[in-house]
């Protein structure tokens, strides 16, 4: 019968006592600190929301009063809307006195526009767009002024043409149709892309409609107002519209203003926490705590703003306030531990240093290998030689598996590592779509360029692999200068035919976007054959060497359709079977029947035409002349 030594029992009892005492202290302090932190964050969120509401309300009121001033002056006939000098003086004066306003403008019923615009560099420009016939560009005049104390200084005048159609602008149409002031949020103003909120008012003088007044505030100013709030460190504020678009943020990620939470980089943990909270809570007003892997708990609050169902979302990491408190809690626990049993703590420390932490790291590395997250596997030197050798061997195994994954599809390698697929010969019949993509004239190109052909082949294969993976396909193998890919295996994909066609279109587009390899090779850049049908899918080979692939008549036909593409002078050919899988969408153009080697009967074939995007005209790679910029319905459907 085993009997423990007294020293071992004492160490265990002391450690239990120390750990229970430290845990109790930690819980008490943590609870008290958590309640205090929540109260502080709630107070700060309320102050932030109140400040934004007040600022937004003042801005809206200022915009409304400015628009009413202009409308009243034109309505009363104090200034005629066609009086260029007085109109310009009025707009310029109002804009100088209202620094938060970016645009004051007036749209005429004949399509003309006149406006005063505050530029980002502090200058003011007067923009006048004349009338024009339908389909013609409108004359544009821009006078640039630089404000000086008590006056403005004229700098330059530019004349050009503008494609801006005032009568089609939402602010004009809604302002004309409504007797009351109308707010709109638009991305395009007379000066180009400029997200802004616009107030428009219909102007009627002596019973006659004479135009629409517009006053706009750039959403950039809203972001500047959020930035000026002096939020807590690492905290961020966002203004969202009713559809969830991000209209303003206190701190853009990487200096870029994202339009949706999904556009923020994954490294922006605060934006990720805010996005998670908004997605999980369907109401406009809430306050929640969202766990985050890199920042810990993040407080996220949402509150309504007094405009167009907008709302303010504020996200603040708990560590901003609790870093010092948590540190002190840990210090107290360590002091209690040291005072209660220094010897036991030393023993536990040595055990933790020599065994626990190294083994925990090794276990984490093994879990990473199990998930096939090989890039996160690192060698961690340890004091003990056996554990150090184990870590090195684990790193070498990760490197070997990473290299192994480059020779097989990851969808096959990962189940092999996890034990989901037994590595032995066998397979099953499955409905698949198979695509072969070939680089035309590769043999002649090799003879002409020699070793210099390798970068062009690598570029083609890179484009093809990226397009296949983007559509969820599996790259089966490389056959010289050709790529074989399959869909609907190993994972099920109901739209496998459409995915293959989209991948083919993407490959063709990318190859045509690249400069030609040599002169005279502008027309045909790739040959692609696509077929759908039943194939044997699985581990094909011997007990010593296996290859996860697809074999059968469906595969053979897809391969031979590449030659049909060459014969018919097109770049993409798909079979009737694939067409049936695609459904009734007008995605393709029939090519008739084709005699294919190995098939007793002719096969119906189709193609997907190249989008006609170059107005200068030219061949599209299918033998058809491209003389306009219209896009074919087939490509529109495939590119959805």
From TrEMBL:
GO terms for molecular function: adenylate cyclase activity. InterPro entries: A/G_cyclase, Adenylyl/Guanylyl_Cyclase_3/4, Nucleotide_cyclase. This is Adenylate/guanylate cyclase domain-containing protein. The lineage of its organism: Bacteria, Pseudomonadati, Pseudomonadota, Alphaproteobacteria, Hyphomicrobiales. SMART domains: CYCc. Keywords: Membrane, Transmembrane, Transmembrane helix. GO terms for biological process: cAMP biosynthetic process; intracellular signal transduction. The chain crosses the membrane at residues 6-29, 332-355. CDD domains: CHD. Residues 433-562 form the Guanylate cyclase domain. The keyword Membrane applies. PROSITE patterns: GUANYLATE_CYCLASE_2 (PS50125). Residues 610-629 are annotated as: Disordered.
């Amino acid at each position: 019968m085993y009997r423990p030594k007294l020293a071992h029992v004492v160490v265990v009892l002391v450690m239990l006592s120390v750990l229970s005492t430290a845990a109790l202290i930690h819980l008490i302090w943590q609870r008290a600190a958590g309640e205090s932190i929540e109260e502080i964050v709630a107070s700060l969120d309320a102050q932030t929301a109140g400040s934004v509401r007040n600022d937004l309300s003042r801005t809206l009121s200022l915009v409304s009063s400015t628009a009413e001033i202009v409308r009243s002056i034109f309505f009363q006939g104090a200034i005629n809307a066609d009086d260029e000098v007085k109109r310009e003086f009025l707009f310029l004066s109002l804009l100088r006195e209202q620094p938060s306003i970016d645009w004051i403008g007036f749209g005429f019923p004949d399509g003309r526009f006149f406006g005063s615009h505050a530029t980002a560099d502090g200058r003011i420009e007067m923009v006048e767009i004349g009338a024009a016939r339908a389909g013609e560009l409108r004359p544009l005049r821009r006078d640039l002024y630089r404000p000086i104390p008590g006056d403005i200084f004229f700098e330059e005048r530019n004349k050009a043409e503008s494609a801006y159609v005032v009568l089609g602008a939402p602010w004009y149409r809604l302002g004309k149709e409504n007797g009351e002031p109308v707010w709109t949020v638009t991305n395009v103003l007379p000066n180009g892309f400029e997200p802004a909120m616009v107030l428009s008012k219909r102007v009627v003088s002596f019973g006659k409609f004479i135009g629409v007044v517009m006053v706009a505030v750039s959403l950039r100013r809203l972001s500047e107002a959020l930035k000026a709030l002096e939020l807590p460190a690492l905290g961020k504020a966002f203004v969202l519209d009713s559809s969830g678009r991000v209209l303003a943020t206190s701190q853009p990620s990487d200096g870029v203003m994202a339009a949706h939470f999904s556009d923020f980089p994954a490294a922006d943990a605060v934006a990720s926490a805010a996005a998670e909270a908004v997605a999980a809570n369907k109401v406009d007003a809430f306050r929640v705590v969202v766990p985050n892997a890199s920042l810990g708990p993040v407080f996220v609050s949402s509150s309504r703003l007094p405009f167009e169902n907008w709302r303010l979302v504020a996200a603040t990491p708990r560590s901003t306030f609790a870093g010092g408190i948590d540190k002190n809690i840990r210090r107290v626990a360590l002091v209690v531990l040291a005072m209660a049993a220094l010897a036991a703590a030393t023993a536990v420390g040595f055990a933790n240093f020599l065994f626990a932490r190294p083994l925990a790291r090794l276990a984490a590395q093994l879990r990473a290998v199990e998930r096939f997250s090989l890039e996160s596997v690192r060698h961690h030197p340890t004091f003990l030689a056996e554990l150090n050798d184990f870590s090195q061997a684990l790193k070498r195994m990760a490197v070997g598996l990473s290299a192994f994954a480059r020779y097989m599809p990851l969808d096959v390698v990962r189940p092999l590592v996890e034990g989901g697929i037994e590595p032995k010969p066998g397979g099953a019949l499955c409905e698949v779509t198979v695509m072969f993509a070939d680089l035309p004239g590769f043999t002649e190109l090799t003879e002409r360029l020699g070793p210099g052909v390798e970068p062009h082949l690598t570029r083609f294969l890179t484009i093809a692999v990226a397009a296949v993976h983007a559509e969820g396909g599996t790259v089966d193998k490389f056959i010289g200068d050709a790529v074989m890919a399959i869909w609907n295996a190993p994972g099920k994909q109901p739209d496998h035919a459409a995915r293959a066609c989209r991948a083919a279109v993407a490959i063709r587009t990318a190859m045509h976007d690249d400069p030609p390899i040599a002169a005279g090779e502008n027309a045909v850049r790739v040959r692609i054959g696509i077929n759908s049908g039943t194939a044997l899918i699985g581990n094909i080979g011997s007990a010593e060497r296996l290859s996860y692939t697809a074999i059968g008549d469906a595969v053979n036909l897809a391969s031979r359709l590449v030659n049909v593409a060459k014969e018919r002078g097109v770049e993409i050919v798909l079979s009737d079977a694939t067409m049936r899988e695609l459904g009734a969408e007008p995605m393709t153009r029939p090519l008739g029947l084709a005699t294919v080697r190995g098939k007793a009967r002719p096969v119906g074939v189709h193609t997907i035409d190249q989008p006609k995007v170059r107005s200068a005209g030219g061949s599209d790679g299918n033998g058809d002349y491209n003389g306009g910029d219209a896009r074919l319905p087939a490509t529109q459907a495939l590119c959805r």
